[in-house]
Design brief:
mainly beta; Purple Acid Phosphatase, chain A, domain 2
């Protein structure tokens, strides 16, 4: 099997139990999926796992028994890039640049955001779950190529 030179990673957060068909369609053909917490139920993870392997962390609202197996933070290595997952970036317990992390993925705020700090991509896909205030429904995609992680925010048309 030939090795791919690029990896597509779907990034979703704050689904709060709602797995929208538009989100499933937007995540089609990704190689891996990251869920940054406030999942809302094991059915969400099952739907995502039907698309691609999933790495997920527990959010502050994931308090039911099924969620106890999920970590609060996780690091996933994909194509020699380390991606650190946490639900609330304000609780970040590490210095990602010092730790050699390529990207930090978080949710919690329901506001999509992407910026680079000290050489590390900070990526929040926003919320793909129930609408909060007037914020858009969104998710994201990371492209990993040549040791670099690039992000793209995607607003879902409902």
């Amino acid at each position: 099997m030939a090795q791919k030179d690029e990896l597509q990673v779907g990034v979703i957060s704050d689904t709060h139990g709602l797995m929208r068909p538009e989100a499933i369609a937007a995540l089609a053909r990704v190689d891996h999926i990251i869920h940054a917490g406030d999942i809302g139920g094991p059915h969400v993870l099952a739907a995502l796992q039907a698309i691609a392997p999933v790495t997920a962390v527990r959010g502050n609202n994931d308090i039911e028994r099924w969620a106890t197996a999920l970590p609060e933070t996780s690091t996933v290595k994909l194509m020699n890039c380390s991606i650190y997952l946490i639900h609330n970036v304000r609780e970040l317990p590490i210095d990602p640049a010092e730790a050699g992390v390529s990207a930090v993925v978080a949710g919690h705020s329901h506001q999509a955001a992407m910026d680079v700090r000290n050489g590390v991509l900070f990526f929040n896909p926003g919320s793909a779950g129930p609408r909060r205030f007037r914020l858009p429904i969104s998710l994201g995609r990371l492209t990993i190529r040549d040791g670099t992680v690039r992000g793209k925010l995607i607003t879902l048309e409902l």
